[in-house]
Amino acid sequence: MNMNTTFEDKLCTIFIEGSIDTLTAPELEKAVNDAAPQCEKMVLDMSKVDYISSGGLRVVVGANHTVGKDNLILRGLSANVMEIFRLTGFTKYLNIE
């Protein structure tokens, strides 16, 4: 997994590429926690994520609590990743674009 974080005013975007699994989820969690104090809104750009495990889902749910439901946006989910969010019921309370 590769990540890049950008900051524009109070908006931070974390671009994620690859798989978010048990091994890489802690990296994403650290990136979210490091960026959160510097932004009011956070975008997780997942347009290049091909797989997310339960460990990755846990990090996304944690980010939702850290920055607040209205302040976290998940962007660019592939059909496969979107299906995982749909099957777990997370689409009901996450802000997905």
Q: Care to describe what's here?
A:
The protein has helices spanning 25-35, 54-67, 79-88, and strands at 2-8, 11-20, 41-52, 72-75. The chain is α/β, with parallel strands linked by helices and 97 residues long. It is built from 3 helices and 4 strands; from the N terminus they run E-E-H-E-H-E-H. Helix content is 36%, strand content 34%. The chain starts with a strand and ends in a 9-residue tail after the last helix. The chain is globular.
Question: Helices, strands, pairings?
Answer:
Layout (H helix, E strand, L loop, with lengths): L1 E7 L2 E10 L4 H11 L5 E12 L1 H14 L4 E4 L3 H10 L9
Parallel strand pairs: 2-3, 3-4
Antiparallel strand pairs: 1-2
Helix pairs in contact: 1-2
Question: Largest beta sheet: what is the strand line-up?
Answer: 1-2-3-4
As residue ranges, the low-confidence spans are none
> Sheet bearing the most strands, described?
4 strands, mixed
Order of helices and strands: EEHEHEH
Helical fraction: 25-40%
Percentage of residues in DSSP E strands? 25-35%
The number of helical elements comes to: 3
Mean pLDDT score, rounded?
A: 95
Shape: globular
Structure classification:
alpha/beta
End-to-end C-alpha gap = 22 Å
* Integer-rounded radius of gyration: 12 Å
> Quick one: how many beta strands?
4
Highlighted features:
single chain; 97 residues; alpha/beta; four-stranded mixed beta sheet; 3 helices
Describe what is shown at a glance.
With 97 residues, the protein is α/β, with parallel strands linked by helices.
